[in-house]
Design goal:
disordered N terminus, single chain, globular, Rossmann fold, 261 residues, alpha/beta, 7-stranded mixed sheet, 10 strands
């Protein structure tokens, strides 16, 4: 049997990554609520005469409506699982079935916010969803990304003891990120990072003040929640494709910036 993963195998990994019919547990609710707090603050500073348009990629069953009221927020989902998308449509304004790494079925600069919650660890090419987010967002639009932190103090303890990090044990998790790497990656894609926090830190004896600790010591928290605003229109491609673009420049992370994007 070949070790090479087929397209069908890869698709199954993505489909099996959606949340399912189980309710979101309290730790998941923390990151979702904090992401919604960021969008609510951004909406307060935007045009009050129209609904704030939010695109939730890899949206699962559509949890954000719990915190974002329909009269102020128009929420559109993008989800690879047809079953999950059908559930999301019950609360969201719409939800399309699609792969976040392929072109998104949305108009350029048509959204005020993009939410990428617990999706970046599942993608094969981390540049693609960030490219699409840059295109989908209006100028000064807001991106909120949450993903497991490889620098979570418990993960570091596992590594020191020679154990596999918990986040990389899950076969649906293709990549792992540190705070510095994720900040750099998001910045490459034309965003300015404006906020960084964790969902929880769970330091022994300090759980009573964990909400405060998750802001002070976000770099060692469990799940990173990064907020960024779009400052420039760019597209980042793999360096192997440099010959395809007459105007480009190297930007690190084995990538080039396409200058005529």
């Amino acid at each position: 049997m070949s070790d090479r993963m087929t397209d069908a195998d890869e698709s199954n990994i993505y489909v099996n990554a959606w949340h399912g019919n189980e309710p979101y547990d309290p730790t998941e609710a923390i990151r979702l609520e904090r992401a919604c707090d960021m969008f609510r603050k951004h909406a307060e500073a935007s045009d009050p005469q129209r609904r704030y348009r939010l695109l939730d990629i890899g949206c699962g069953i559509g949890p954000l409506r719990r915190w974002l009221a329909g009269e102020r927020f128009e929420i559109v989902g993008l989800e690879i699982s047809e079953e999950a998308a059908a559930l999301a449509r019950k609360t969201y304004d719409d939800c399309t079935v699609g792969d976040v790494e392929k072109p998104w079925p949305v108009e350029p600069e048509s959204f005020d916010g993009v939410h990428a919650g617990a999706i970046m660890e599942h993608v094969v090419n981390w540049h693609k969803p960030l490219n699409h987010a840059n295109t989908a967002l209006r100028a000064e639009g807001q991106l909120v990304v949450s993903t497991p932190n490889l620098c979570f103090w418990r993960e570091v303890c596992r590594l020191v003891r020679g154990r596999q990090p918990h986040w990389i044990k899950n076969m649906a998790h293709v990549h792992g990120y540190t705070p510095a790497f994720l900040r750099q990656l998001i910045s490459l894609h034309g965003f300015e990072v404006t906020g960084f926090q964790a969902d929880r830190v769970n330091l022994p004896l300090l759980k009573w003040c964990d909400r405060t600790m998750s802001r002070w010591f976000a770099g060692i928290g469990a799940v990173m929640i990064v907020t960024a605003r779009r400052t420039r229109r760019v597209r980042i491609e793999h360096e192997d494709l440099a010959h395809s673009f007459p105007r480009n420049r190297p930007v690190g992370m084995h990538a080039i910036e396409v200058l005529d994007a």
